[in-house]
Amino acid sequence: MLNPFVSIILTVIQIYIWLLIGAAVMSWLVAFNVINTRNQLVYTLMDFLYRITEPALRPIRRILPHLGGIDISPVILILLLVFLQRAIIYYSFML
After folding, report:
1. Where are the alpha helices (DSSP H) in the chain?
2. If DSSP codes are grouped into helix, strand and coil, which group holds residue 44?
3. Which of 19, 49, 50, 60 could make a disulfide contact with 73, Cβ separation 3.0–4.6 Å?
4. What is the mean pLDDT of residues 41-51?
């Protein structure tokens, strides 16, 4: 059984992973003209996702080399967050 504090941290990390996936999918939909950012709801959602994910993605983008039009920073951040989740679970059972 996990500590409730650890459980909340793991849940927050999982929610953030889903927000990263949502931001990536929304950016693809905008790039392929599937959705229009002139729509107020779409603009508000994109702005929210940008503001919540960009502070964590910006340092990764600074480190990564330019890969053309491909941005793999969300994938790297998701991998780091999954590693962090597993490390928290592993060390919480060790205590």
Report:
1. 4-31, 40-63, 73-94
2. helix
3. 60
4. 96
